[in-house]
Amino acid sequence: MIDKEQINLRLKKLNDYLGILEHLQKYSVEEIEQDELKRGSLERYLQLAAEACIDIGEIIIAEKNFRSPEDSYSVFTILKEEKVLPEDFADRFAPVA
């Protein structure tokens, strides 16, 4: 049985992080490059969003007894192999890990 509570908790966090990232979209690349606080915020919230996705993937892998991932990248490879994620999405998203 998938631990829906843990997945929902991470989805809520992911939604929060995406809201912050959406707010940062109002700044130009130049503004972000020149402002350490904006750049640091962008980097950190991208990292947190990626980690939330990895965590969700790891929960699914564990609950479904798929093979164990060797690293964060392989989380998305496994989910692709098991048809949990579409191949094109998994291939584009895995490098984020």
Question: What does the model show?
Answer:
The protein is an all-alpha fold and 97 residues long. It has one domain (4-96). Helix content is 74%, strand content 0%. It is built from five helices and no strands. The protein is elongated, with a radius of gyration of 15 Å. The model has no long low-confidence stretch (mean pLDDT 95).
Give me the strand/helix succession.
HHHHH
How many helices in DSSP terms? 5
Helix content: over 70%
Q: How is the main sheet built?
A: none
Number of domains: 1
Find the count of extended strands (DSSP E, 2+ residues): 0
Contiguous runs where pLDDT drops below 50 for at least 5 residues:
none
Question: Which class best fits the helix and strand makeup?
Answer: mainly alpha
State which percent range the strand residues make up: under 5%
Radius of gyration: 15 Å
- How does the overall form come out from the CA principal axes? elongated
Cα end-to-end separation:
26 Å
Mean pLDDT over the full residue set: 95
